[in-house]
Please model this.
Amino acid sequence: MRIQFLGAAQCTSGSCFLLAFSGRQVLVDCGLFQGPEELKQRNYRDFPFSPAEIDAVILTHAHIDHSGLLPKLTRLGFRGPIYATAVTADLCSIMLADSAHIQEMEVERKNRKLKRRGQPLLTPIYTVADAEKTMQQFRRMAYDEEMEILPSLRVRFRDAGHILGGAIVEIWVEEEGETTKFVFSGDLGNTGQPIVRDPTAITEADVLVIESTYGTRLHEDREQRLELLAEIVNRTRERGGNLLIPAFALGRTQDILYGLRVLQDRGAIPPLSIYIDSPLASKATEVFRRHAQVFDYETRTMIEEKRSPFEGPGVHFTETAEESKRLNEVSGGIVIIAASGMADAGRIKHHLRHNLWRKEAAVLLVGYQAEGTLGRRLQDGAEEVRIHGEPVKVAAEIETISGFSAHADQAGLLSWLRRFSRIGQVFVVHGERESSEGFTELIQKEFAVPVLVPRLDESFVMKGTEAVSTWDARCRSFAVEEDFSGACQVSVKREVKFRGAFGLSERRFKIKNSIFTAFNLGSAREFFARTALFRLAAQGLAVPLTSDQAPEGDWEKELAGLTGEKPWEVVQREVLGPAGMGSSRYFYLDQLPAWAASGYTTGPAGRLVENIYAIPEAASEPQLHASAPDLVRFWHLLAEGEFLPREAVEQLLAPYGDRRLGIYVIEGKAPGAHVLFGGTYEGPLAVAVLSNGEQGALHAFEQLAAWGKAGEDDGGKHRK
Ligand SMILES: [Zn+2]
Ligand SMILES: [Zn+2]
Model:
């Protein structure tokens, strides 16, 4: 069974998780990427799976960061069912058509320019027609009912308390007679949110995938935020300005309306003129009205008492662009709620342009403001911003109320987690990296369960509740410490799985390390001296071989005493030559060839100095240098029994088993050198990390060894 994180991993958009089991593939969500350009680019790339081979999609809720790429999936060949709650299906028919319309308009605008320049034209990610086709694939599910949607896959939708129709999904997958229960939190709301019911408490999960948008932050509580809202409304009115509220058309807009209604009922604010300037919000509100049965108790009561937050004398939904423009002429006294929630698109931008420079106006930010958006810049206190290419001074009051967020805050997430009586493995997703990592620490501290923050595209094989990262994805995400300088290679079955070179081999002339650069092996030269002794023993010479026969570090002396030659001459003849280690040789440190790396060590005053100056005596003896491909090659020969008889190999390697990593590791150090290499004995894995500095080699080796081990066990059979 495999789970892959194709979105919302160390970011808050593009939510998409692939479950692969028993030859089937199911997606949970298929969202649009938003925010920084490098994320948005992912909307245009091919899916890393074949859409036609996806058996079904399970959709948590209608927000575009969860549903926005469904029409693309259909466009590229997906014909299966999309399971969602009835409200989510209704909301999607509005949201996806709107999103498709935006895609088409944007491409049309770009194409006008391209046409004039005679350049090739773009096609939209998807069209309104694609969105309509997608809608026919929806299957409406009731809350709380368990249903088998595929042989060996059952699903149940539970209230998520996030937006109307939003769901936590429980998924039971059966493979080889064993059932694994996945729980996807979707976007989770706080308890006591307006309109929606509270999130359902779930008690068991083998694998829990939980959001962490506000993993490190706390919201104001409900009363506090209503008080703040009242203060801002009253202050702005007294100054005679307009109050602008950028809000998601779906969810937030209705929450604000609800809050304003409650405050008006209490007499905390005067009757208001509220303009909802977003056709999408109007349509979404219409869907809300239609699905009153899933409202929480309080909202149902308000509607029964004819105090519906969605209608009333002061609530206006603008439809046409003209109506919207007319609002620009109103200099004060009204409330405008418009999309987008992060103020980086939609009608709110026009209203900001006409109001930001007025010191009597106010802007109230009520939702999450992602990095790089206009909303975030305002929140961060920008004195001037650009809107539609024009600079606009910011004189208006800018306020934030985070309590209106439809997402649970840290306390909300933790209290939802506390209801579990059993969790196997946790994956923390849907948060910016600091937020996900911060939240992970909290979970570890309180619940003592394994927690991972997956990277984008990373995939894990689930063995029971144990998550093993698969080889390919891990290698793509390989990261070295900042000051690591050296080369790395991993091979499985003699096939190179990963190769990388980092930093400089010669600092003065800025020569870069390459995968073929030879590095000083430092104290690992002893291992090669001992290997040479085993070779001699295999030829019938009586030589001391076991650790207790020669004190550690004296194998070169043994070798010299036995043969009457220089030890490096014997190693060259008995090991490096026969093993075909062509770029490995003994060099005096002051006579290095261009393809061998100079070693760097931290000298006085923290400056990096070449090791030749740090260890004068080192120049008196040649040092063994080798490249990463040579060490990997050597390991394969050794492990496969081609270089020495098997008993000899066992004896040779006995002192080097590393229990923690589950492989054999030979480590060599010297000033300005740190080398680790090894692998599995009789197994197919070989790993080498060589460094001409003193930082980061172990970190790199540990990652590669662990992933190599997982990749070896995985045997590649889970990949397509
Ligand atoms: Zn959401
Ligand atoms: Zn989301």
User: Anything to note?
Assistant: Residues 252 and 301 are 20 Å apart (CA to CA). The chain is about 30% helix and 25% strand. Residues 714-720 have pLDDT under 50 and may be disordered. Residues 222-404 form a domain with the Rossmann fold fold (CATH 3.40.50.10890).
